[in-house]
Model the fold of this input.
Amino acid sequence: MSTAERRAREKIQRRQEILDAAREEFFDRGFHTPTVDDVATRAQVSKGTIYLYFASKEEILAHLLIEGLDLLVSSLEDIYTMHTSSSPEIILRTLADEYLHFAQQNPSYFRLILAFDRGRFEESISHELFQEVLDHSLEGLSVLARSIECGVEQGTFHVADPWRAAGATWAALNGAIVLMSHPLRQKMLATDLETMFHCTLDLVVAGLKDGQKA
Done:
């Protein structure tokens, strides 16, 4: 191995070590409180070293978000591939269940996805990095849209725009997860997350079948 190759490998490893430390820091303490200094301390490097690899705290968070999106999209693609011979409704329901599973098994990544949606990250990171996040996000939504489009082609679902219907489906399911994340709301509604999630999914599927012009 040449000196240049060794240095390139070391640079990749150091960058990953910083991301690993940042993941621990942000997932342990939340996304707002930790600073670049805290990440540097966790990674056992200087603050200046952090800036050799990442321009800002927001850039670090964006790369962690891409990690989470990759996990989610990969799992959704696997589910879609495994169930291609199933009915469109089964595919849609299985994708929805996988999304709920992701939110429950990866709560920190899920919170980061929500935080990124609400925040002003677009103004805090480069256009190229924001586009990368957007592209990864669209990949996940496209899996859902494909399942609805398949349902339209087979006459199971009746919607004019599968992409918009996928967005509405995502909004409804995401809303159920966020709503039921608060114990008070669980008591108000006298139910749990899984029950409310699947009740919401039932309504969505019924709407798709009944010909809502989404």
Summary: The radius of gyration is 20 Å. The CA atoms of residues 87 and 151 lie 8 Å apart.
